[in-house]
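Input/output pair, single chain:
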Amino acid sequence: MKGVHIGRESDFIKQARKKSTEIRLLAKGNGIEVMKQYIAPNSHITLTCEPDWNGFEFYFILDGALVCRDEKGRTTRLRSGDYIAVTHLMKDVYFRTETGVTLLYMSSQPVFHALSDEIQGLVALAREVERKDSHTQEHCERIQSLSMLVGERMKLPPDRLELLIYAALLHDIGKIGIPNYILKKSGPLTREEWQEIEKHPSAGRAIIEKTFLRDAGPIIEQHHERCDGTGYPFGLKGDEILIEARIIAVVDAFDAMSSDRPYRKALTNDEVIAELRRCSGTQFDPKVVEVLIDVVSAYPPGVSFGEYKRF
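Output:
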């Protein structure tokens, strides 16, 4: 039929995937795009305020449930049949999926390629790190998930929590510039090799600043700073270090000690907790240490802590 296109459930023009989300472009015309998006359970979502955006967006919930939280902490639960209409957004709006959520997403201006590039860019960065270091991908996903829980427990504002979650996933992205023989070395590193390792936080920031995640760059750059000023690259102390970076530092150490490495077996939970407390106040932020211990004590071993995704 001329002027009419009939599509089946499995039909789409293009799609983009990440571990926690899939978005499909179903139809487009006259600048309007219609998409279908699936978002995994326990995902954080942000509708971002962009001053230069003058379009209209509409999200209809086909299936699932999510919770909206405003800047005052008030929550609104949305479920199948509810919808979100967005125009002239003045502040970022934050959501969290309770279940897997399927959305019908319509925009009055083309957005799919921007969304696709952002999603695929993150996947590409993660894969680059995985190729450099065989344990990094799962490690980074664990850091992301656990950092999210610690940040929530510490009641970080939604915008800070968003940056923490992204920075935690990509905190080691700067390692893509480190030679493989250094990353895979099982014995002690030489001084020159350590100098190469210590470049990766700043290298990671440089990479991130080229993306829409530029505000997460300082967090990535500071995640090896220590509260007593003996960390790198700047030797920052205490509150000079961003709270998000302090959280990642503790979670990173927890995961490293809890995992097998070529040079040692994983420590027991009691051993890990004892070591974190021993370094509390010198290497680590004491409050973050205790919050992390509370968080991990509430979950059984091997739990999946969830993952972040935004619209």
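Strands lie at 14-18, 21-29, 32-39, 44-47, 57-63, 65-69, 75-79, 83-86, 93-97, 101-107. The domain at 14-110 is CATH 2.60.120.10 (Jelly Rolls).
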